[in-house]
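Example 714, ligand 3-isopropylmalic acid.
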Amino acid sequence: MATKHILIVPGDGIGQEVTAVGKKVLEKIAARFGHTFTYDEALIGHVAIEATGNPLPDETLEKMRKSDAVLFGAVGHPKYDNDPSAKVRPEQGLLKMRKELGLYANLRPIKLFDELLGASSIKPEILKGADILFFRELTGDIYFGEKGRKNNGDTAFDIAEYSRYEVERIARKAFEAARTRRKKLCSVDKANVIETSRLWREVIQKIAPEYPDVEVEHQFVDATAMLLIKDPRRFDVVVTANLFGDILTDEASQIAGSMGMLASASIGDGTGVYEPIHGSAHDITGKGVANPLASILSAALLLDISFGMKAESEAVISAVDQVLKAGFRTRDIADQQTPADKILGTEAIGEEVLKFL
Amino acid sequence: MATKHILIVPGDGIGQEVTAVGKKVLEKIAARFGHTFTYDEALIGHVAIEATGNPLPDETLEKMRKSDAVLFGAVGHPKYDNDPSAKVRPEQGLLKMRKELGLYANLRPIKLFDELLGASSIKPEILKGADILFFRELTGDIYFGEKGRKNNGDTAFDIAEYSRYEVERIARKAFEAARTRRKKLCSVDKANVIETSRLWREVIQKIAPEYPDVEVEHQFVDATAMLLIKDPRRFDVVVTANLFGDILTDEASQIAGSMGMLASASIGDGTGVYEPIHGSAHDITGKGVANPLASILSAALLLDISFGMKAESEAVISAVDQVLKAGFRTRDIADQQTPADKILGTEAIGEEVLKFL
Ligand SMILES: CC(C)[C@H](C(=O)O)[C@@H](O)C(=O)O
Ligand SMILES: CC(C)[C@H](C(=O)O)[C@@H](O)C(=O)O
C-alpha cells in the first residue's frame, strides 16, 4: 500500500477526453490494490497559451517536479500549424517540458493485441508475434539545436547536435532493456551521410562489448522504415535519435493496428511522463469517439515504471485485453467484421475497461 | 529516329548486375524504334575509390555532363558503414554528383503492378489502386549543410538549410505534375518543430494560389509515415525535403511490393540521372538474384523524361507487366503461390523482358 501523487496534464484536443479515462483507471487501481493516489491537474500547450500566454507555465513545471508521475495527453492546434511564422506554439511547451525534466528516453512499446490482427493494414501473417520496444532519444537532435533565418529571412537553418554523453545514456538504457527481452538491439542512424549519426554509431560500437549477450545491428533509417513494414518481427529493441524516432514510431503504430493503441513513457533524471503517442487530433475532438486505450495503457506504463507496481500494471493491460476479447472496439480499431453495437465511444469503452478491473 | 549518348554508371554491389540488364533493354528499344544510342561507362562510389582514390572522379563528372542521360546503379560498401571515422566514402560520390549536376528534383513513382498485390506485406484491399508520385528535394537539407565535431570530437553537429528558391523550384515541379494527375499535392514537413520546415510550408502556401486547380494539404512527416501504410490511396503527388523523402520513399517501396521494383529520376539543371531506389545490397551481390526490374523501369523513365520518348517508355513498362503476368518473379517479389520454376535470377528475368520488346 503506497501513497503517490499524480499530476494529470491533458493538454489539447482529444488529450482532454482520453486523459480523463486514463485517470479513472488509476483511481480504480488505487481502490482495488489499496493504494492512496492523490491528483492535481495542470495546463500545457494551446490551452495554456490561451489561459496564460505561455505553453508551459512555471506553475505546471513546478507541479510536475513535485509529483511522483505525470499522466499526459497531447499538445497542438491547427491554428499554429497553418501559420509558419507563429512565435508562440503549443509544441514549445512539450519540448520545454522534456528538456526541463531531463526526459531523455522515450520508450514506445509496439505490440499487437491478438484481437486486433484484423485492424491493421498489414497482413496478419506478417504481424503475428511482432513485439518491438523503441527507445527514442528525446532531449537532443535537431529538435533542440539553434534554428533561425538568414539572408533577410530567405534562408532557414536548423542545427542537429549530439554529444557522446547524450548518446551513451540512452544507448545503455536500450542495451539493458534488450537484456530482459530477446537480446537484440537495432541502432538506427544515417551514418552514411550525417555526422551526428556517425558519432551515434561510434558510441554504440564502443559500449557494445560491455553487453556481450546482446546482439547489435546497425541499420540506416531509410532501410528501417522499409523493414518495419516488410518484416516487423525481425526487431526486438530499437534505439534511435529524436527525429528518426518520431517518424519510425508513428509508422510502427500501424503494426499495433492503430495509433490509438500506443502508449509511451518518457523517463530520465526526474519525474516520468506517460502519454499516448497519438496527438491532439482536432478533427475528432469533442466528438466522443477518440480511443482512450493508449491513455489507459500509458497509465499501465506509469504504474510499472514510475511506481514499480507490476501487478497493478498487468491488471490494466489484462483489462484492456478482455475488453478487446469481448469484441468492443473504438472506431479506429474496428474492422469490417465488427458489429455496429460493439463500436463504442471514448467513455463507454473506458467503462468496459473499468468493469474488468 | 534520334541519336542519343547514354552514360552507364553501375557503381557498387548489385548496381553492376542490374544496370547491365537496364542497358540491354535500352539497346533493344533503340533497335526496335530505329534510334541510335551510343554508350560509354564510368566509375562512381567504392569502385571509383578503389581505382582512383576519388568516389567521383573528374572524368566521370565530365562524361556525365556530356551525355544526354545517365543510367545509374547504386553506391555503398559495408566497409565504410562500419567505420564511422572514414574520411572518404562512396556516398560522397553520389552526393557530389547530385550537387554538381544540379539534380534538385528526385521523382519516385510508387505504383503497384496488379500482379504483385500478393507480394506486399500490406493487405491487397488497402493497396489496390495506390499510385503516388514523390518529389524528393535532392540538393539541400541536412545532406549538404556544414557538419563536423566540436569539444575534442565529443559533440557532432549537422546543419540543415533551405532557401526559398530551393523550395520553390521543387514545389513548382510538384504542382505541375499534380496538374497532370489527380490534382492533389501533399507537402510533408515538420513545421511544428523545425525552422527549415516552416520556410518550406511558407513557400508552398505562397505559391499555391497560382495552382488553384490543385488541392494542397500539409502533413507532418511522422503522420505521413503512418498514413502511407494506413491509407496509401489518399496520396497523389507528395513533395518533401531531402531527408524526409529518403525515409518516406523507402517506406513507400512496400506499397509497390518490393524495393526491387522502384525506379527514380533525378532531374534539374542539366543531364538527368536514372536509378533504382534500392542500394548496393552487398548481401546478395554476385549471386545473380538481384531484381533488375527497377533498373529496367529506370531506363523507361529515362526514355520518357530525358528523351521525350513516350511510346518507347511505355513499351518497356508494358514488357515488364507482361513478364509479371506470365508469372515470372525474382525472389524478392515472389509470394507463397509462386512455383519454384518461375523464380528467375537477374539475367534470366531480363531475357524475359527482352522477349516482350
Ligand atoms: C508534437 C510534436 C512536437 C511531437 C514530437 O515531434 O516529438 C510529437 O510528434 C511526439 O512524437 O511526441
Ligand atoms: C546512399 C544514400 C546516401 C542515398 C541517400 O540517402 O540519398 C540513398 O539512400 C538514396 O536514397 O539515394
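Summary: Residues 1-111+259-357 of chain B form a domain with the Isopropylmalate Dehydrogenase fold (CATH 3.40.718.10).
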